[in-house]
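Propose amino acids for all 382 sites.
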């Protein structure tokens, strides 16, 4: 079977579906999204903690978040389904004096962009967020505009509206090769046939490197398991708490209804495609988080799940057209920020494909930064 499309998108996760929606809303609807799984959002997008925040280390990333936050706030008006955005805020904590200096400097850049972030002394943290263990705390930043939204609803909204606008989503079909005509993209080969088209977008999440290889491009994105746990209903913490994160340990918690949702990135865990939930990871998380939220000692874990972060070497996404291969676009390596950055990524990829100036400077996301040894340093990594 051979089909034709103006744009072929590999991956029906948040990124691929946002790109499809943004293209279709700009009039490019002969778009085919292909996913190897039987349902959309089966990859990382279905495992996200739903966090949305404006604190990043580079203005472009802040602007990405601002676009996403605004879309999540008004999601129902655009997509007919609420994103369930809850502005509970984000509280970043640090016990490292040099990191605190960096955070304070970055808050000036963020404030200049309109982010209502506040720097809090340990005493201010203690008086506003009494569940945090103060020992060794150097400071924290709090942004009341941040919060949590429902990735499943957002995914559904993107998919539904894209389909309504004429996009085709093909499931249970794996892209196995990328067709080239000299150095130009000509289409893709799949387990079900050929799709011809001059534009291919790699939105394959943790599989981005494998899809890049099909076109001979090295995309430095690797999969890492990340686990999340949810307690039984728990009343020993306030009913309203912000997403609260300790930067040094990457451990975090937030409310999930009456329960508490907990997570942490383990820096010693090797790259893999495993998504099993194991006891060892849970024990490490509990040991770590009890040191700074001692009240959790009385909590019981009810359930847990794991998914894959698609991690780039500098924890910043890789977005743009591959210069050597016209028609091959990357939207990869979101390193734990792909839910909140999915709306803006969809918009800029659609703008690039249509030959428009992207609404945000994409230099920090360029693949070329790795060869030039100019990484985009990110402080707020969880
Ligand atoms: C535990 C956890 C918590 C997270 N919390 C947050 C958070 O709080 N906030 C936030 O912003 N982000 C968070 N993230 C990150 C976010 O979920 C991801 O960055 C985002 O979902 C990436 O979306 P994606 O579409 O690129 O990838 P995916 O959702 O993985 O989609 C890629 C798709 O490509 C398909 N695919 C791959 N290869 C092929 C092929 N050859 N042919 C066809 N199809 C293919 C896959 O089947 C998959 O469906 C979290 C992630 C995890 C795992």
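Proposal:
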């Amino acid at each position: 079977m051979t089909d034709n499309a103006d744009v072929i998108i590999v991956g029906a996760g948040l990124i691929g579906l946002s790109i499809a929606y943004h293209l279709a809303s700009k009039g490019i609807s002969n778009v085919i999204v292909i996913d190897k799984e039987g349902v959309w959002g089966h990859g990382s997008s279905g495992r996200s903690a739903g966090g949305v925040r404006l604190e990043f280390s580079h203005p472009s990333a802040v602007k990405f978040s601002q676009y996403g936050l605004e879309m999540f706030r008004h999601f129902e008006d655009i997509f007919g389904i609420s994103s369930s955005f809850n502005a509970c805020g984000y509280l970043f904590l640090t016990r490292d004096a040099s990191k605190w200096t960096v955070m304070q400097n970055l808050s000036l850049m963020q404030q200049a962009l309109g982010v209502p972030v506040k720097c809090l002394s340990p005493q201010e943290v203690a008086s506003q967020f009494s569940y945090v263990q103060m020992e060794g705390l150097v400071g924290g930043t709090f942004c009341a505009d941040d919060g949590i939204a429902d990735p499943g609803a957002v995914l559904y909204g993107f998919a539904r509206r894209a389909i309504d606008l004429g996009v085709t989503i093909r499931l249970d079909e794996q892209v196995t090769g990328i067709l080239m005509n000299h150095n130009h993209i000509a289409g893709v080969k799949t387990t079900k046939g050929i799709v011809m088209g001059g534009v291919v977008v790699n939105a394959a999440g943790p599989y981005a490197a494998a899809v890049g290889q099909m076109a001979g491009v090295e995309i430095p994105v690797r999969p890492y398991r990340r686990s999340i746990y949810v307690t039984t209903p728990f009343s020993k913490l306030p009913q309203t708490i912000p997403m609260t994160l300790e930067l040094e340990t990457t451990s975090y918690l937030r409310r999930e209804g009456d329960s508490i949702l907990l997570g942490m990135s383990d820096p010693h865990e090797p790259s893999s495609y495993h998504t099993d939930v194991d006891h060892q990871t849970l024990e490490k998380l509990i040991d770590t988080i009890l040191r700074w939220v001692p009240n959790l000692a009385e909590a019981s874990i009810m359930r847990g799940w794991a998914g894959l972060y698609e991690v780039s070497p500098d924890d910043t996404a890789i977005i743009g057209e591959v210069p050597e291969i016209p028609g091959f676009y990357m939207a990869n390596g979101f390193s734990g920020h792909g839910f909140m950055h999915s709306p803006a990524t969809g918009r800029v990829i659609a703008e690039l494909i249509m030959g428009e100036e992207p609404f945000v400077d994409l230099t920090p996301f360029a693949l070329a930064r790795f060869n030039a040894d100019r990484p985009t340093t990110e402080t707020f990594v969880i």
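The CA atoms of residues 14 and 339 lie 7 Å apart. The first strand starts at residue 2 and ends at 4.
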